[in-house]
Amino acid sequence: MNLKHIRERITGTPDADTATDFGLGSKVARSPGTRLINNDGSFNVVRRGRSIFAPYQNLVEMGWGRFLLITLASYIMINIVFAAGFLIIGTDSLSNISQYDPFWYRMLGAFFFSVQTFTTVGYGSLAPMGIAANALAAFVALFGWIALAIVTGLFYARFARPQRLILFSEKAIVAPYGEDEQVSSIQFRIANKRDNNLINVSARVILTWLEGDRRRFAPLELERDNVPLFPLNWTVVHPITEQSPIYGWSQKDYCRRRSELLIMINGYDETFAQSVHINNSYIHDEIAWNVKFEPMYFEREMTTELHLDRIHHFSSVEEE
Q: Which residues, 6+ apart, have CB-to-CB distance to 192 below 8 Å?
């Protein structure tokens, strides 16, 4: 008995799809409206149970608004804690702050002294007096250096992290293949958002659909699966020939089988000198039928203009 038959007996899953399902399995996303890959490229999988606490990774990957809010809140809370420490020691150990001043005034003074020590600014109007206050100030300064190093590293990691450079058309389309109106094709468009150079860009497209209670996967052969240079847009095309796994499908078949196009784009970013990997997908109701994409770039005198805002534009074939 070969490995294929052994795997089928153990898992109950045919081996034909194991090389083409992106590792998602055949018994996922069977509920109506559920997709395998979200629009932002992440997998539609939520981890529960024994997850690993990884604060650095979370801080690098979260949105900028939340990151800045957490950074500011942490900065304020840390200095409030140190200010409480100076209050416990006694604000008479800080110059220009009297024990007879109102509590709120002494708290603000201790807080601002903590901020000055934490950031190693030290204006001179406030200074520690006594062993306890100086020891705590020394610890605050050391903690400030460590915190500055951590935050600087986080900011650098966030700026240096490869972004989602590829812009996808909002919809994939089913359009005539070339001049032959008897042959259809499924297409979507991609373009580079920024002016940096992406080279050796490749595309891999897999169609997944439900067959009974089992999810099936089939790779789609592309007219072209690689472009060495990527200065313009790229319309990725799968000709729906007799060899295509979706040959003869109608629009109702796409919907009834809750199909989804899984897309993986790979390339090399010359600016950051590293590879980039981007995922995307189109579910059945994100596919437009009997339309064609409108041009995105136009030749001008001595140059070519690429209009990124036109990547989503298409027109009906019947209008011609």
A: 165, 166, 167, 198, 230, 231
Structural domains of the chain in order of their starting residue, each with its CATH number = 3-41+164-319 (2.60.40.1400), 56-160 (1.10.287.70)
CA distances from 260 to 38, 56, 215 (A): 11, 34, 11
- Mean pLDDT calculated for residue range 99-103: 82
> pTM for this structure?
0.69
Residue 72 is predicted with a pLDDT of: 94
Tens-digit pLDDT profile for residues 17-73: 555 566 666 666 656 667 777 777 677 776 666 666 678 888 888 888 999 999 999
Contact status, residue 22 vs residue 218, Cβ threshold 8 Å:
no
15 and 8 in contact (C-beta within 8 Å)?
A: yes
The residues near 177 (Cβ < 8 Å, ≥ 6 apart) are 183, 184, 185, 237, 239, 240
Q: Are strands 234-240 and 274-283 parallel, antiparallel or unpaired?
A: unpaired
Question: How does pLDDT run across 221-259, given as a tens digit for each residue?
Answer: 999 999 998 888 899 999 998 888 888 888 888 888 888
Nearest CA to 268 out of 191, 204, 205, 196 is that of: 196
Which residue has 């995922």 as its token pair? Answer: 279
Tokens of 142: 């050391």
Angstrom distance (rounded) from CA 184 to CA 239: 6
